[in-house]
Amino acid sequence: MILLSDSQMQQFIVNGYVIVKADFPAAFHESVRAQAEAIFSSKGNPGNDILPAIPQLEEVFSHPAVTGALTSILGPGYAMHPHRHCHLTPPQQSAQHHHQDSYEADQNVRHHRTRWAMAFYYPQDVTAEMGPTSVLPASQYYTSRIEAEKFDEALLCGDAGSVTIVHYDLWHRATTNRSNHNRFMMKFLFCRMQEPTAPSWDCSNPAWRETAEGDQLSQLWHSLWNWHQGNGSSRENGKEEDEKFNSTVDDRRNLYVESGALSEGDQLERAYRLSRQGQEGTKALMENLAAEAASLLEANLAAQHTNPSQLSAGFGLSAQGACAVPFLLKHLESRQWPLRAAAADILGDIGLPASNAVPFLLDSLEDDSSWVRRNAAEALGNIASPEAVNSLSGLLDQDNCHFVRHNAALALAKVGPQADAAFPALQKALSDENLYVRGNARLALARLDAP
Predict the structure, then answer these.
(1) Cα separation of 390 and 424, whole Å?
(2) Which end of the chain, N or C, is more open, meaning fewer C-beta atoms within 10 Å of its C-beta?
(3) Residue 201: which of 67, 94, 302 has the closest Cα?
């Protein structure tokens, strides 16, 4: 594999994408393009069946540069998600609006930590006239289109064989095709299967190097860089960095009290700054989490593809790691389901340092709220707890909410070979009414030691 360098990895954290090249002969990519042309003209878009329709795509996503980039970003053992799509932009088709992709058959929180990514493969040379994909660099941490569109657009032009690895939440769109040629792009989804415990790229220097982009989200970037290296807490970098990013009384007092006057970026930076302030910061973040959970609930439930736990204070608590867990466990027992759901989500985003929360998350799998069950199932997958296998199997077999079953199957896949006891439930799930529950069940079965 050709792993990413420190510089490439830091640029991915800042800008949300990196471009590599599957450098097969030109005839290889022309063959893929011609097959796509024939399929679309005779049968239409094959949807998820694009991979069996064009088997050469397996070679693209097995190329050393592509596997190296995906391993660098998602860690070893990452998985290809069953959703994939060939996008055709025909001549004179108008541009799309900038958007973030939804999570297929799921409603996930848009986490900053990289557990999902997309790969855009182009089987032909792409010029600015052909309606290339455009991205808004550094927009992946924003949920607001207004905030995202403040960034300058970048067109993904390049030679055939270009593969762009994209943070799942990066804002992007297809632009207007002003040429006389079809433009094809193959979009495949990939998922992290294990939490980082060490750098998975070609790391020669563990220190973050300041970037030319300035310090717009410096707190956030530093936190993610540390997490990718296997440091589960924002306070694992020593006293010197803590002092460098010292919080103020105003941060603690006004994080969301003045949220109407703060940009989304400012809210995020204050949350990450508070994450460095120990219990004092935790208490402030917990107060703000409760306020957000109440004030944003109606809007989050009304918005499409939005988990009600999409709360900015949660990012600061995730960055705190293990020291935030005792506080979150109290919310996990709240009488208010939005707080229980938020606590389960944040414990999952913390990942391995939240392992002592497993017994409490297991209880949450029986919660009356499907949002709590969904977030708890995802959390147990990130922690990869073998203790959860029987309970997750029960969800997979009995829960009437498809996105709960979806996450139960994916969680069992992340547990891997230690989930052998789930074999009967996973086999039964191969007949689930939901396409992606079936797909995640197949993924989990492939990772078991069972025959």
Answers:
(1) 11
(2) C
(3) 67
Q: Is the pLDDT of residue 248 over 80?
A: no
Is the CB of residue 180 less than 8 Å from the CB of residue 130? Answer: no
Helix (H, G, I), strand (E, B) or coil at 146: helix
417, 421, 422, 424: CA torsion to nearest 10? 120
pLDDT band at 243 (very low <50, low <70, confident <90, very high): very low
Q: Which phi and psi (to 5°) does residue 243 adopt?
A: -70, -35
pLDDT tens profile 11-39: 999 999 999 999 999 999 999 999 999 99
Identify the architecture of domain 6-191 in CATH: Sandwich (2.60)
- Which tokens go with 2? 């050709």
- Under the banding of pLDDT at 50, 70 and 90, the label for residue 348 is very high
Least confident of 139-148, 184-193, 206-215: 206-215
Structural tokens at position 295:
């004030």
Residue 222, strand partner residues: none
Pick from 272, 277, 278, 308: nearest CA to 292: 308
Alpha helices in 384-430 (DSSP H): 389-398, 402-415, 423-429
* Tokens representing residue 361 in the block: 């998350």
Eight-class DSSP state of 334 = -
Sequence-separated (6 or more) residues with CB below 8 Å from residue 363: none
Q: Is the dihedral of CA 318, 321, 324, 330 positive or negative?
A: positive
CA 432 to centroid of chain Cα atoms: 25
Identity of the residue numbered 4: L
Helix axes 370-383, 402-415, angle to 10 degrees: 10
Q: Please compute Rg for the chain using Cα positions.
A: 22
Contacts of 262 (CB under 8 A, 6+ apart): 256, 270
Chain centre to alpha carbon of residue 394: 26
Would you mind telling me the total number of residues written for the chain in this entry? Answer: 451
The arithmetic mean of pLDDT across residues 397-421, rounded, is 96
The packing angle between helices 402-415 and 435-446, to 10°, is 10
- DSSP conformation letters of 25-43: -HHHHHHHHHHHHHHHHHT
| pLDDT tens-digit map of 105-152 | 899 999 999 999 999 999 999 999 999 999 999 999 999 999 999 999
Q: How many CB atoms lie within 10 A of CB 104?
A: 18
Residue carrying the six token digits 């707890």: 385
DSSP 8-state code for residue 369:
-
Does residue 314 contact residue 344 with C-beta atoms inside 8 Å?
Answer: no
